[in-house]
Design goal:
Elements (H helix, E strand, L loop, with lengths): L5 E6 L3 E7 L2 H6 L7 E3 L2 H10 L4 E5 L1 H12 L3 E4 L6 H12 L3 E2 L11 E7 L5 E6 L13 H5 L1 E7 L6 H16 L3 E5 L3 H16 L5 E5 H8 L4 H8 L5 E5 L5 E5 L2 E5 L13 H14 L4 H15 L11 H9 L2
Length: 332
């Protein structure tokens, strides 16, 4: 096997997050799915944008956020996703390349525009997300660089992107390329609604031994397995997935890797400002430890530290030197 060019290559939604503080009353008035993620069309996206207060634009997308965290820790990463040939597309491409991630997929001409996620953050730090997927949904299988996929230690797949047909086909092709090259495949389940629509696909991939690393929060674990408690959910998957990582929000996280089990508490945070990207950065910290052969508990600690940094401010991109933070917290 040739020496890998990348630690992690990710496939996901190329999205620009538009974030704004919001009152509980505004959430109710707009009839939003409080604390959840809802897909919206272009007209609804405009309506919600017009209703927002002063907003910040920050490049996002779940897998892209994870790669940004990995890059900040020193990993070599590449991203595959689709933007449109428009201003937001330029913003996204600039931001992801600026943090050292290779991104070579050409922009898509014409409509629809680059994806955006309108995020309303209430005083309790809950984020209510409304996503217009736009150009994201049209990532063609031809955009896939199979040589690059085969040249990464881990292929990281964003569950959200399994929903539209074109990128789903691209991701299936990527799994085959990674498998052919003897690489690991990681999947993050993303959201319960995606599991409700595509859980059978993922259960089949798991049964066929195609997923090496699975990330789920406790609600996603229940949705995928039909279990109603953490232990039964873990038991349903632990023998089928070499590495299973289950996050439990303020209750910390559990991982089982090749029969070994570890758990960590959530990292203390002075003030929770915005939970956007907590799971994404947890995955970044964990994967950094994993690709570097670290003990399971240390991988989890890295995830918890990265997640705690993210929820202490607005946005899903780190605002401190993540490498230095890890060194201070982990004692090296």
């Amino acid at each position: 096997m040739s020496e890998p060019r990348y630690d992690v290559i990710g496939i996901g939604n190329a999205i620009v997050d538009v974030m704004s503080p919001a009152s509980d009353e505004l959430i109710e008035e707009l009839q939003l799915n409080r604390g959840g993620m809802t897909l919206v069309d272009g007209a609804r996206a405009k309506e919600l944008y017009d209703a927002m207060g002063p907003a910040r634009e920050i490049s996002g997308g779940s897998a892209a956020n994870t790669l940004a965290g990995l890059s900040a820790l020193g990993s070599q990463c590449a991203f595959i996703g689709q933007v449109a040939d428009d201003q937001l597309g330029e913003v996204f491409a600039h931001d992801i390349r600026a943090v050292g991630i290779d991104f070579d997929v050409p922009p898509r001409p014409g409509d629809p525009s680059t994806a955006r996620c309108l995020i309303f953050v209430t005083p309790d730090a809950q984020r209510t997300m409304n996503t217009f997927l736009g150009a994201c949904q049209f990532l063609p299988a031809e955009a896939l660089d199979e040589e690059a996929v085969g040249g990464a230690k881990i292929l990281y797949l964003e569950g959200y992107l399994w929903d539209p047909e074109e990128p789903r086909a691209a991701m299936r092709r990527a799994i085959e390329a990674a498998r052919s090259a003897g690489r690991q495949v990681a999947l993050t389940l993303s959201e319960v609604f995606v599991i409700e629509r595509h859980g059978d696909d993922w259960r089949a991939l798991i049964e066929d031994g195609m997923i090496d690393i699975l990330f789920a929060n406790h609600l996603e674990l229940f949705a995928l397995t039909g279990a109603d408690n953490i232990e039964d959910g873990i038991a349903a998957l632990a023998g089928k997935v070499p590495t299973l990582v289950v996050t439990r929000s303020a209750d910390g996280a559990i991982a089982v890797r090749n029969g070994e089990r570890a758990a960590v508490a959530a990292e203390p945070v002075e003030e929770v400002v915005d939970t956007t990207g907590a799971g994404d950065l947890f995955a970044a910290g964990f994967l950094y430890g994993h690709v570097n052969g670290e003990p399971l508990e240390r991988c989890l600690r890295r995830g918890a530290i990265a997640a705690a940094e993210i929820i202490s401010h607005y946005g899903a991109r780190t605002e401190v030197d993540l490498k230095a933070l890890m060194a201070a917290k982990l004692g090296q």
